[in-house]
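Schema walkthrough. Field components (list of strings):
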Amino acid sequence: MPEFIDILNALVLMTNYVILPALTYGSQLALGALGVTLVFGILRFSNFAHGDTMAFGAMVTILITWWFQSLGLSFGPLPTALLALPFGIAVTAVFLLFTDRFVYKHYRGIGAKPITFVMVSVGVMFIMNGLVRFVIGPADQRFADGARFIFKAREFKEYTGLAEGLALRSSQVITIVLAIILVAALFWFLQKTKTGKAMRAFSDNENLALLSGIDPDKIVRITWILAAILATVAGVLYGLDKSFKPFVYFQLLLPIFAAAIVGGLGKPIGAIAGGFIIAFSEVAITYVYKKFLIYLLPENLEPESLMQLLATEYKFAVSFVILVLVLLVRPTGIFKGNVV
Amino acid sequence: MSYLVGKDLCGGYGGPDILKGCDIEVGKGEVVVIVGPNGAGKSTAMKAFLGMLQMTGGSITLGGEDIMSLSPQQRIRAGIGFVPQTHNVFTGMSVEENLEMGAFIRDDDISGTLEEIYQLFPILKEKRLQAAGELSGGQRQQVAVGRAMMTKPSVLMLDEPTAGVSPIVMDELFDRILEVRAKNVAVLMVEQNARQALQIADKGYVLVMGENRFTGTGAELLADDDVRKSFLGG
Amino acid sequence: MSLLKGTRLRPFIVFGIMAALLTFVGISQSWGVSLTIINMCIISAIMTLGVNIQWGYAGLFNVGIMGFCALGGAAAVLVSKAPVTEAWSAGGAGMALALLCLVAGCCFVFILNRKWGKRPFRTTVTFIAALGVYFLARHFYDPASAAIEAVNPAKTGYLGGMGMPIILSWIVGGLFAAGAAWLIGKVTLGLRTDYLAIATLGIAEIIVALLKNEDWLTRGAKNVTGLPRPVPFELQLQQDSWFVDLVSRFNADLLAGLATDERAATLQSLVMDASGIFVKLCYTGLFLMVLLVLFTLCQLALNSPWGRMVRAIRDNETAAAAMGKDIKGRHLQIFVLGSAVVGIAGAMMTTLDGQFTPGTYNPLRYTFLIWVMVIVGGSGNNLGSILGGFLVWFIWIEAEPMGTWLMNVVTLGLDPASALKAHLLGSAQYMRLMVMGGVLLLVLRYSPGGILAEKSGHK
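Field assembly_structure (string):
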């Protein structure tokens, strides 16, 4: 039997390397997937430009952050990026409304097939992709400032006397807190306000919504604004937590779609569940369990290999496999999305 | 003079005219039923009143005012309520939310109307927090009618409200429709179940090929041999 | 004169313009540059043909072109490189065992899942069995891959290939891509059309990740260079007397007018230039043959009863299903065929490059650019696809110098030392992404059929 202290150490190890990162990453994915799912519910297509919308929103926020920093503005212990966030959202929202007016609106008018919309979103993706690289370049950008840690691993070790340290980064706390606030606000909006209910009605049954006098243009506008908020916040949080690199945001498209489909496309609650399922699977499957098992197993059973289920390079395979499994077993997702 | 009057209605979906000059009138506190064979233009006539048809001729007045130039949404504001045949509830939303969405265009307090609907359809009050998609077929139809009633319409139009429900449910639904009539609402319905519908109808139209073939009170039409033989199956 | 009708003449005109553009590059820059562009144009055209089979014939949206293309590239390595015997003896047996475990294990899990039937815990049992198979395979795989990668890592560190002619890889690449497409198609076809797109996006990322990281198979990020060629090497040509004779005969007039010592030097430089062009021409010839064969097959297929049925399915799936057509089966067929063509093109591209560099595969260049080609050329029209491949590749290559030029003009008024000018000039290369996106959106909006639209039926 492992000693109590070993179990504690193993738990701390797990929290530090799996639970906290997965919670953070899951929040970011959930916000991204919410954006995808909202656009899908209202406009009825899979928006391939969403990853690049996140990159665009993050880029605008970074530029404004740099400007604020050069002016000497700061947000105390919090990153300046949070001050710049509302402006980033505003610019992104304007950009999305602009694309809707000049690109998507035409196809709604002619009643185009969903796949045509997907194709069009690829065109938009291309442009945003080029725009982001044109303005800020393809390289890594760091823009986090303020306090980096709530408490450090060393402080934790000294305080608790455990062998394993637990670090709590401020970006993790900010991500989780902001995600909770945003999701709560979104659900309040969708469930309690007249406009939010009208959005749900429109997503549920478009013709009947029109018959009830709901203005489709207004619904579409609000959807894009919400998408801009969700994408920008997700993009900035991801950038604060890791770093900003345009190509990485494009690659986030796969886990985000996987999250949205696993939860059930068009279902906000599903997007959140999906985000955490994907994040926890990804982190847990690519985690190296060697040290964890050494704490828990008797000495003669201790593993020699890394005990890693899958190399980190294949983390996309995790979202993909989950996606495929869901498509095979339950194509509508956990919360029965309005598809197939 | 009837409340909703369509005179010499002509129009279609862009191709040849489907309605070829038919007249349909509904008065307040009246149930009017349109029956006829498949493809006679029954539902098309209803779409003409709603403004969802390309009209090539005729006139439509509501309470004496010409509404031909109004969009469907404007006609709903003007007092026309419509219950589509299928997909007529928001399945993912609760019964109460369905009713609220029915009143979307209203900016005043709707709680009074809500209470009225619950009195009319008591089962809905009981299930008001349940998703409409989880209700039985008959209950769903009640939600659909209730949703359309939330704008306090002066005219209620129903497109085959009893399609696909059992005879018992159909009778109950017709009873409710009579109660709606009692509120001094003009009720216009398209029905496949012609015999039962004509039994509660104050007036009936038999449409064939987009034209009026027979017109009369429900009882008259039921008694007419030609109508019985041709459209009511003997 | 029906020949003069706009619709009939249009292909001739647009291909004429394309030829003029390439000739212009040949004259103004050099024929070598022009031929380099042409070779990539042909490969792009073949890829576009493949994607057009999927999108134009059947409306399937494949966003994993990059993956199928990379599989073709891997095939080039696996077919043409000489086997590394040391690596085979070090880890070959272990790898074979791992593979055997995986295949046998998958069959076992599949059968178990079937036989388990309605008994409880079906999913759990299947899951645990699959996990067991995975660990068993890993048990053999881990030491084997380590052993293989340890064999002379600077030079080999992988199993090598089969040492066969590289042309063979064009077929093998097609087969690889077809296999991957079959797996994906099995799962996603028959569901919502977007799902295929998302699944292919995923499989492409995974394929490229595999090729980047499985060093024992393709050397991964260490790249495989010096692939054998199906055509002669320039250096060898320069020493072949028949080639030198040929060049001197071609330039007899020029050479006759020169002094003897000058003549030798001029001839040497002429031979050097000519050898480069000759090699490129050889590739062009080979590629053109493939293109012609595939184009002919595509045309025959499109106009056969099979092609008509496929288009009927695309235009009205419900009606086709009502007539008893097996939609999912046809879609799977088409998806596999189209991906195979992309795989062939991928193998050809790696052959042309002479090296396999998994790190260079990126979706913008290898997936979405091909899409622009399909849409611009004309979806559903094979000739249009070829045109799209040529035209868009040409724009893609020329957009960069044009973007730089444009930026130079725009920033003319700026201080040469200013940071803004440097930034704008440095970023000019990303202009082409925007140009491509813009072209795609404009064509979709104002000419959804593309330059050479499909002749009938499709709106």
